Amino acid sequence: MIAYPDTSFLCALYRRQDNSPAAAAHFADMKEPLHVSTLLLYEFRQGMRFQSWLHRQNPAQGFPQTHADQALADLQSDLDSGAVVLVTAQWPDVLSRAERLSRRHTKTGGHRGLKILHVATAHPPGCDRTAHLRQKPAPARPGCESRSPPLSEGPHPRPLIPPTVNGNQHAGKPTQP
Description:
By secondary structure, this protein is mainly alpha-helical. The chain is built from seven helices and two strands; from the N terminus they run ααβααβααα.
């Protein structure tokens, strides 16, 4: 089964948060690499940059640039080592699935556009994606084994705090030399 994370999982993995131990444990126990899309990488990287900008505007918010730089470097190290792998998305198909999901579910569920795009990216056609929009596990169905790692605290990540778990190492897998 392929684990496709959401952005809150990456935040917990590369930035110290209350749910970082759960993210690190899940990541360490995975038998396959963590699969990410270019969309997910963009949203995570943008979030790190935004939080450091926010901190420069008001030191009581966001976090320092050095913390953002460390989180981005740790992610890049995991990409370079193969612990995290980039999965190619077929964007015309993803956008078509996202449009269908939006048409069916946003009026009643109020889903953000990026959330719908992530769900459409993570699941092959014909799978039940509505449970993932509601942050609940979807029932297993043949060919629909893609899943999000189990740790969601809701649709938005908790406020971020300094990036270390043990010394200077991030919450994820130790990188390979």
